[in-house]
Amino acid sequence: MFNEYDVIVVGAGHAGSEAAAAAANLGSNVLLITMNMANIAQMSCNPAMGGIAKGQIVREIDALGGYSGIVTDRTMIQFRMLNKSKGPAMWSPRAQSDRTLFSIEWRNMLEKTPNLDFWQDMVVGLIVKDNRVLGVHTSMGQEIKAKSVILTNGTFLNGVIHIGTKKFGGGRIGEKASLGLTESLVELGFEALRMKTGTPVRVDGRSLDFSKMTEQKGDDDPKHFSFIDAPRLTNQRSCYITYTNKKVHDTLRLGFDESPMFSGRIEGIGPRYCPSIEDKIDRFADKTGHQLFVEPEGWGTVEYYLNGFSSSLPDHIQFKALRLIPGFENAKIFRPGYAIEYDYFPPVQLKYTLETKLIANLFFAGQINGTTGYEEAAAQGIMAGINAHQITHEIPEFILGRSDAYIGVLIDDLITKGIDEPYRMFTSRAEYRILLRQDNADTRLTPLSNKIGLASDERLANVIAKNNLVAQIKHFIETESVSPIDVNQMLIELGSMPLSQKTKISNLLSRPGISMNDLMKTIIPLNNYISSLGKGLEEIIEEAEILVKYENYIQKEMEIANKMSKLDHIILHHDFDYKNLKSLSFEAREKLTKIKPSTIGQASRISGVSPADISILIVYLGR
Amino acid sequence: METKDTICALATPHGMGAIALIRVSGGDTFKIADLIFKPLKSGLLLSEAPTHTIHFGNIVSGDEIIDEVLVNVYRNPHSYTGEDSIEISCHGSYYIQQKIIELLIKQNVRLAKPGEFTMRAFLNNKFDLSQAEAVADLISSNSKYAHDLAMKQMRGGFSNKIKDLRKELLNFASLIELELDFSEEDLEFANRKDLKKLLYRLKTEIKLLLNSFSMGNVLKNGIPVAIIGKPNVGKSTLLNTILQEERAIVSEFPGTTRDSIEDTIIIDGVSFRFIDTAGLRSSDDEIENIGIGRTMEKIKQAKIILFVFDVAHGNIDFIKEILDEYRHLLEDPNKRVILIGNKIDQLIEMPAGFKELVELDTIFISAKRKENINLIADSLIKSVEKFQISNNTIISNARHYEALSKALQSIEDIEEGFIKELPSDLIAIDIRKALHHLGEITGQVTTDEILGNIFGKFCIGK
Fold first, then answer.
1. CB contact under 8 A, A280 and B125
2. Do A619 and B462 touch (CB under 8 A)?
3. Which domains does chain A have, with CATH numbers?
4. Where on the phi/psi map is residue B334: left (φ > 0), alpha (ψ -120 to 50), or beta?
5. Domain B144-217+397-457 sits in which CATH superfamily?
6. Which CATH class is domain B222-390?
7. Ordered DSSP codes for A319-387
8. What is the ipTM of this complex?
């Protein structure tokens, strides 16, 4: 029934969908196997993409030629650029999506992708020979051959859902769990552990009183995620903010006895930064109110998602407490919140390509690696998809460094440091935050991706054109001077020191509180010059502004990045015998043997490996 | 750590001695040795010599013979560093030492950084970490006393203090990072006033440590001693006598001008550097009083002051005047003042104010007859011990000094960022830099550390 595929992708969530698209677009014959064709790229939790650090990731995926940005742009119902008041490293795009449209649009895009087949089934085991994967076994008894396999099972592996004392198998509410696969992987020698996450109640918007909440509108000037294909959002839906109170907390406490978390029935570790409401009340007992976001699920639907109220308490307790929240006095619910426990495979078992160290040509991506978030999953998916294609065709691997992309930070963190709670991206995880901005994701990544044949030539041409214009504007600003008489009035109005002599425009722009906009309004030659370059250059002007205004900081980080990257170029062989290098500390020997870092740089980021150990390794290799 | 290059350094103290020892270590040692060393009797090239052998020959620069020397050969791994190395024992003139080192440098041998031989020994597993830490940071000190002392300090207060500072800064970083990554949440952020106060404290403490470097440095380069007193009390004679008596090592470091020539002696492993001795030699006839010009400058630079007066030619009023000045000098807690009553050879009766002078530990000497000069030496050593008690945290390591200086710079950048109201992601860059520099002393900075700190302390919602 099936020919041999180049790549089989198991699971069609955010990771699986990106993986399948990337491998297929690169030219591999791909089979995407999902348990339910109707739920492709389902948003299992909140109906939103992006946010701080996550928005940057979506931009990076798009710059590489992935679909997440395009799908989000096409299906969003609200857009906000978060952190606009902070520096450009923090500007983070975030969109509310229409949950249903999002899934449909993804399926449309996948269906239009060449070389990509679909199969609805459950994978229960792998065909493995001589530590190399050769295909998969399914629950319907199919044996499908492939040169490489990508597992993106999400929360489905031995998934167990908890609501109060009720407990049942499932990968998402209303969907079956995937059984058997973990066991067959463990038999192959993989280590598997349990993790937990949760999701809040879904509410009927017709029963809510929004007048008691604070409206949160989208931006007046909505932007987009994709560097190409960017429809302008003209109409937006609002979110609403409300708060819990002491009464809500007291009511929730009544259910603590029946909480699967507090009673120990859930053994998996949950994320500290995305705690359930009962966890928040328990851990921060002195806080009398917690913020909640009421997020619409789509253009037409009345369903709302109650962000911040994730809970696995008994449904009647959730319901009772809910009705004590301002605006929710008469709330009706579509379904209660729940917690889900699932298997994950500690990601230190992976290489930079996301291929497993144990079984050749087998890749893991997404929540199976212990991450959380659509964006983190999609990022791993596209990287696994690319590398599965590369390995199948014996092309060099595709790896991003920590100073290249958040995706590089993500994968390096996962495979080097391991995780002890669901991993979510934060900007503070990146050493070079100001280099990894959302505005320059295309400059950073599109050329790299174009080189391997994923990002289209059109994308590359866009980047080159953009950078040329940016360079021209930057050159103008850095070489043209202004006289005090031209700008002093503006400077005084903006509370900045007036000039006493002529100075370069760039010197003014690097002052805090002086924007390109201010300068363009005041300095006529600048305005004329930019007008002469063309229309609709807002993003290009902004890019030039960032590069001039923050040059000093960008330079600082670039220097450190260059210094550190030297360590990332010293290769450590996988067979390196750390056990016999007695001058290493005992802990370092253990950790290095387990993780098998591929470079000195990676070794230096393993906890328990000290600078002294690194020096010893460098000396050893220097011989 | 670049270990492929070959390094050299003078292993014996700077200055004149009968013999000086120059150590060379690294992969090219023998190749380079063959270029500058011509064996005299054996005819055996050093590159062919077995390990642990001694060779007699000439160090040559082209046709010119620089010195007749003995060279010890140590072959990898049987050397101090674990690398190929040689030790050149040459004659101890300053010129010869410099010339040989110049020759080596011309052959692309690099001058070793402080502690580098020991660092290499550590990397080659000749030492364990604790030994190496203690030795490597201190190896550059040129006296044993300073060495022991700094070793003790490095292991104790200093690194703990840096750790405490870093921890506070880490808390600070966490607050800033929290603001950035969770700006969408309803968090209460620490107020800027507290943050500014913390910065101020950090700055003060780092400055204190930085200032201690001058003391640490003093221990390495010689404790500055000033000899002061009225004209004709015998300051020059005293200086010459001390230099002759404490002959252990006397050296002259030529400077750019005659004025900056200084004499150094080492007593019990501590080096003392006499300030402005040229001035002493030439200016004794000039009118020179405490409280003016040159003397004031000397007092400022000195850690120890030898306050010399003529004990044989003064009445009680004169002694009172001397004691007033002495007390005035004592007002600076960072200095030690030793009272020296000179010219006891000219005493014909009990000196005026004798009881009080004895209570103040006055040393009675005759510089001319070289009487009791050893007491001055004892007193100098005792003064140093007093310094140690009062300065329990001393930085003596240039690398630490540099790291702290950079940390201070970053902290000042942070403060400036607040004043300019820069966005906090930019301020965070300077905070991370400061953490990085402090981390250079104590270990590594990781961003995990910051995140761990965030989650330990704050309620994060979404």
1. no
2. no
3. 5-198+342-452 (3.50.50.60), 202-337 (2.40.30.260), 457-552 (1.10.10.1800), 566-622 (1.10.150.570)
4. alpha
5. tRNA modification GTPase MnmE domain 2 (1.20.120.430)
6. alpha beta
7. HHHHTTSTT-TT--EEE--EEEEEEE--GGGB-TTSBBSSSBTEEE-SGGGTB-SHHHHHHHHHHHHHH
8. 0.79
- B61 pLDDT exceeds 60? yes
How confident is the model at residue A582, as a pLDDT? Answer: 67
For A42-66, what is each residue's pLDDT tens digit?
A: 998 999 999 999 999 999 999 999 9
**Domain-wise residue ranges, chain B:** 7-136, 144-217+397-457, 222-390
Q: So what's the pLDDT on residue A456?
A: 96
Q: How confident is the model at residue A503 (pLDDT cuts 50, 70, 90)?
A: very high
* Fold of the CATH domain B7-136: Gyrase A; domain 2 (3.30.1360)
Which of B276, B315, B320 minimizes the C-alpha distance to B299? B276
C-alpha B214/C-alpha B398 separation (Å) is 10
* Nearest residue on chain A to B27, alpha-carbon basis: A623
Contacts of B450 (CB under 8 A, 6+ apart): A428, B170, B173, B174, B177
Helix (H) or strand (E) run with residue A293 in it: strand A291-296
Tokens of A523: 């300095």
CB contact under 8 A, A280 and B423: no
Nearest to A87 by CA among A408, A508, A439: A439
CA nearest to B118, candidates B78, B150, B82: B82
Residue A102, pLDDT above cutoff 90: yes
* pTM assigned to the model: 0.74
Tokens 């700055």 -> residue: B203
Q: Give the angle subtended at the CA of A439 by the CAs of A433 and A440, to the nearest 5°.
A: 75
Residue A340 has pLDDT above 90, yes or no: yes
Give CA torsion, residues B413, B417, B423, B427, to 10 deg: 20
Coil, strand or helix at B170: helix
Mean pLDDT (whole number) for B331-360: 84
Residue B185 confidence (pLDDT) above 80? no
Question: For A361, what's the count of Cα atoms within 13 Å in the CB-facing half-sphere?
Answer: 25
Number of CB pairs, chain A paired with chain B, less than 8 A apart: 119
**Closest-CA distance of chain B to residue A74, Å:** 24
Distance CA B293, CA B290 (A): 9
